Amino acid sequence: MLSHRMARTVVTAGAILICSAPAAADEVMPRTVAVSGTGYATTVPDMARIDMSVVERNESLRVAQQAAGQATGRVLELLDRLKIERKYINTTGASIRPEYKWDKQRNEQQLTGYVVERRISVELRDLEKLGPLIEQVTATGVNQLSPPQMDSTRRREVYRQALTNAYNDARANAVTLAAAAGATLGAVLSINSGATPIVPQPRMRLQAEAVMADSGAESSYVPGEIRFNANVSAVYALAGK
User: Fold this and answer.
1) Total-model pTM
2) Is the pLDDT of residue 207 over 50?
3) What is the CATH number of the domain that holds 139?
């Protein structure tokens, strides 16, 4: 008796599957259009990051360390004169490495001295001080200076504007494709911004303009604009024929 009930259950389930298969086949997949868009927004930088190093070589490690420390002190004195707050200065980067030369007679390396490096990073919140800092810092003993990295305290706000522009571009592409297909654009089904949305990497640029004969070198450092790029992909429903 139990086996008979089980048999009826199996037959009934099979009938349901067989009947539902044609309905699934008749379903029409919704029409969609997938597009992408690009956009950008620019702003004038209001801050800069400057990385510099003091590198000293000497046969004596103590002498090299002392010279590097003195040069770092002179850098800090310059930054104080420029009224750059210490909270925007980082002097904790340091390294020491031995230097060798190959002794052919002994067929071995011979220690010749030491290289001491002190790295200094400055976050400059007043770009009026950029020229004076770059022009004067080499006199303190800094012998490695990276190009200033221009930045903006408005980076999130400006990047969101770039995202808006990228979305508008994507939607315009979708409207064009829908019209070409004889359809109308429906609701947006999905949006993807792709890249990191919060902290984008802006394109850095620093322009050095020609200086008039009666002006100083410090006034020749003119920051350009920072450009924030954004990419957006979206899927829209299509309506009509």
Assistant:
1) 0.67
2) no
3) 3.30.70.2970
